[in-house]
Amino acid sequence: MASIKLAHITKNFGSVTAIKDINLDVVDGDFLVLLGPSGCGKSTLLRMLAGLETISDGAIYLGDRRIDGLPPSERDMAFVFQSYALYPHKSVGENIGFPLLMRYFRWWFHIPILGSIAKRRVERSPEVAQSVTRTAKILGLTEMLNRLPRTLSGGQRQRVALGRAMVRQPEVFLMDEPLSNLDAKLRTTMRAEISKLHRNLKGTFVYVTHDQVEAMTMGTKIALLRDGQLQQFGTPREIYEDPANTYVAGFIGVPAMNLIRSRYSDDGFRIGPAAISLPERLMAAARKANGPTLLGVRPNALRIGRSDVPDTLQGTVVLVEQVGAESNVSVELAADAMSVEQDQSSNTIIITTPGYSELEPGTLISVSMDLEQAVLFSEKTGERIRD
Amino acid sequence: MTSMSWRHGMHISAVLALLGVAAFPIYWMLVTSLTSSAETFADVPRLVPDLSQLPIYNAVFSTTQIGVWLVNSAIVAAGTTVLSIALAILPAYALSRLQFRGKGLLGLCLFASQMLPEVMLVVPLYAIFVTLGLLDTLLGLILVNSAFTVPVVIWILKGAIDSVPVELEEAARVDGCSRIEILLLIVAPLIAPTIAAASVIAFFHGWNEYVFALTFVSSEGLRTASVGLAGFVGELITPIETVMAVGIIYTLPAITFYLVAQRYVVAGMTSGAIKG
């Protein structure tokens, strides 16, 4: 069983704490994506799983086996590096077969000539040669087995790196931003290939990325990290529809969720001076908060409309971005209705409208909201308020 | 186009001039070795070798022990090279990759050891060699030469190991390599050009070394070529053409070794390892 359990994992670099008390349970066959901005500790966490980095506190289990004290080679995990890390002096075939060669490696293989003969015999042995050929065939590298890595394109090198991981048939695949060096088109192709690989191999994958599109499309589970702390752990749908705090809400979704300053008091729920009627679920949460809140609304749940409709916000168009199938309209709300985007305050919200928007900057508009999917956060802590 | 060819011409001329400066002493040595004693000190020096003097090379081999000296020099130089690389690669790796207390100081000490002149160490080393019974042995010379080349080789190899991407080593660790296997299977092949360059330095040090070879070896049969060559320079008479002929013979194996080693001194081995 290749389930992974991280229990109270902490990592200190000197006085800096890179990872703070992380707990995760990854079920066998899951595709876990560790997501977060640069420097959030996601790569460190992956390297600790691989054994390339020691842990300062906590425990890592693979199935029932505690593995945090084991060297990388004994963890039955393969690692695909962001930079590919192919051995430049070895051919594609030798690169792929290297983990298998090391399985049979003996000290006397270091003796010149004798060692070379022994290594060649291992490489040509049926089990090694067949594994290499089979892996190369799956990845479409059969024609390139004798070529050196420097003669390959980025995508081909990435496939060799995947091959070197696959050939060992490990229980767990660890991947550190493996697609970040590829161009956009190749990235889309490789994304699909890795997903296919996950379905076919049925192994447990742990994948690090800062790209939320990769996370949403590939992952069966996402762990969103910030400053070494776990913000939320769940399926892509849970993370998108049910964010645990304003950070998650702002990180997931393009454009990000709008967070609009609001307040619940005795005279009801208001955004600025405008009274807003909420669905019962949200109203219960607002009553519970009883004070300043942030109303989280996705850009596609906002509509540009007429000003005489109730429950609308007034604003001015400041920017219209045409994305092709849809347009992103930035709207500056009237001064006393503020939105909070990530860590900085601004009173601009983004509305996604289908098709090509003819709106001009400077136009006064009304914004109506579909609050069925909206969520409410505490303005003070940024945490989600549930009914 | 004319400016390009003009610059190309200048380039060629500069290379030829430098080549002339480097090659002239060897040519002069060759010409002098093939000049009769009578002509050597003539007012107008000979610029073209006198091929009738060629038998002097035969005579040198038959009248001196140059063959034995060359073999001794080769043993000392090759021994120094092998021992230096073998001893230097582990500390070079440690200095490059491992973090330990006193690392900076150790590196500095290696540098400092290069500041001591060899002559200053002759007497203390002589005393040590007497105790260890290493006097009058080629092994002693190999050891003492290696002591001088190892620090240099460590620094050269450390620089090369620094440039090997750490990810390669991490990949090897995941693939099941121990530290020593990483060093021998991954790092060493990648820094082969630098190992070749360091070998050239160690070999030439062993081949050219004179002071220790003169002091620590007294048997005629264990003399190295550098000492043997100097032995021709007498107080009263120096047979110039013989010295030059021996000089040419002494130079050839070293040039051969360099030509073999320099083929491996090629750059670009790590390209393709990581992105780009």
Automatic annotation (TrEMBL), chain A:
<keyword id="KW-1003">Cell membrane</keyword>
<keyword id="KW-0472">Membrane</keyword>
<feature type="domain" description="ABC transporter">
    <location>
        <begin position="4"/>
        <end position="252"/>
    </location>
</feature>
<comment type="similarity">
    <text>Belongs to the ABC transporter superfamily.</text>
</comment>
<dbReference type="InterPro" id="IPR047641">
    <property type="entry name" value="ABC_transpr_MalK/UgpC-like"/>
</dbReference>
<keyword id="KW-1278">Translocase</keyword>
<dbReference type="Pfam" id="PF00005">
    <property type="entry name" value="ABC_tran"/>
</dbReference>
<dbReference type="InterPro" id="IPR003439">
    <property type="entry name" value="ABC_transporter-like_ATP-bd"/>
</dbReference>
<dbReference type="InterPro" id="IPR017871">
    <property type="entry name" value="ABC_transporter-like_CS"/>
</dbReference>
<dbReference type="GO" id="GO:0055052">
    <property type="term" value="C:ATP-binding cassette (ABC) transporter complex, substrate-binding subunit-containing"/>
</dbReference>
<protein>
    <submittedName>
        <fullName>Multiple sugar transport system ATP-binding protein</fullName>
    </submittedName>
</protein>
<dbReference type="GO" id="GO:0140359">
    <property type="term" value="F:ABC-type transporter activity"/>
</dbReference>
<dbReference type="InterPro" id="IPR008995">
    <property type="entry name" value="Mo/tungstate-bd_C_term_dom"/>
</dbReference>
<dbReference type="InterPro" id="IPR015855">
    <property type="entry name" value="ABC_transpr_MalK-like"/>
</dbReference>
<dbReference type="GO" id="GO:0005524">
    <property type="term" value="F:ATP binding"/>
</dbReference>
<keyword id="KW-0813">Transport</keyword>
<dbReference type="InterPro" id="IPR027417">
    <property type="entry name" value="P-loop_NTPase"/>
</dbReference>
<dbReference type="InterPro" id="IPR012340">
    <property type="entry name" value="NA-bd_OB-fold"/>
</dbReference>
<dbReference type="Pfam" id="PF08402">
    <property type="entry name" value="TOBE_2"/>
</dbReference>
<dbReference type="GO" id="GO:0008643">
    <property type="term" value="P:carbohydrate transport"/>
</dbReference>
<dbReference type="InterPro" id="IPR003593">
    <property type="entry name" value="AAA+_ATPase"/>
</dbReference>
<dbReference type="GO" id="GO:0016887">
    <property type="term" value="F:ATP hydrolysis activity"/>
</dbReference>
<keyword id="KW-0067">ATP-binding</keyword>
<keyword id="KW-0547">Nucleotide-binding</keyword>
<dbReference type="InterPro" id="IPR013611">
    <property type="entry name" value="Transp-assoc_OB_typ2"/>
</dbReference>
<keyword id="KW-0762">Sugar transport</keyword>
